Structure formats: C-alpha cells, structure tokens
Amino acid sequence: MKDPMEYQVALGQMITARRERLGYSREKFARIMGVDTDYVVFVEDGKNDLGLSEMIVIARALRIPLSTLFALAESALPEF
C-alpha cells in the first residue's frame, strides 16, 4: 500500500485535471465550492488531508461521483 501522502498528491492531480477539463479556473472552482482560492491550491497540491464532507463538496463541484474521484486517484498510483 502506498503512503497516504502519495494518495493525497494523486488525488490533487486528479482534481486539477478534472477542473481543467471542465474549463474552470482555480478562482471559479473556489467560488463554486464556496472556499478561498488558497484552499484549492492546497488541495490540488496534495497538502490538505481531506475529510469526507470536503470530498463530497469537491466531487459535486467537479460534477462526478465521489467513487469516480477516488477511482481516478487510485488508478494514478501503481500497485495501489
């Protein structure tokens, strides 16, 4: 099993990729979630240990099921 920090980084990368695919700037994404842009930066950089409620808000803002967000992050990690 990989280090949880590696998972956080992979999750942040998947969030960034999906946000960009939707054409959202960090500022727009932050507004949709009701948070500061700095928060988005920390999440996308994998520096924030996210709780379930935060993950639900992020998944909704990205317009994907939470399970899909987790699956994308897991697929980015070899031998997860």
Describe the structure.
The protein has 80 residues and is mainly alpha-helical. It has one domain: 434 Repressor (Amino-terminal Domain) (Orthogonal Bundle). Helix content is 69%, strand content 0%. The protein has five helices and no strands. The longest helix has 18 residues. It is globular and about 35 Å long. The N and C termini lie close together (6 Å). The mean pLDDT is 92.
H/E element order = HHHHH
Name given to the CATH architecture: Orthogonal Bundle
| Euclidean distance between termini CA atoms | 6 Å
Please give the largest β-sheet: none
The level of helicity is 55-70%
Number of strands: 0
The CATH topology corresponds to 434 Repressor (Amino-terminal Domain)
Number of domains: 1
Percent of residues in beta strands?
Answer: under 5%
* CATH class (first level) name: Mainly Alpha
Poorly predicted ranges (pLDDT <50, ≥5 residues)? none
Radius of gyration of CA atoms, rounded to a whole number: 12 Å
Mean pLDDT: 92
**Can you identify the CATH superfamily?**
lambda repressor-like DNA-binding domains
Shape: globular
Provide a brief overview of the structure.
69% of the residues lie in helices and 0% in strands. It is mainly α and 80 residues long.
Keywords:
single chain; 80 residues; mainly alpha; 434 Repressor (Amino-terminal Domain); globular
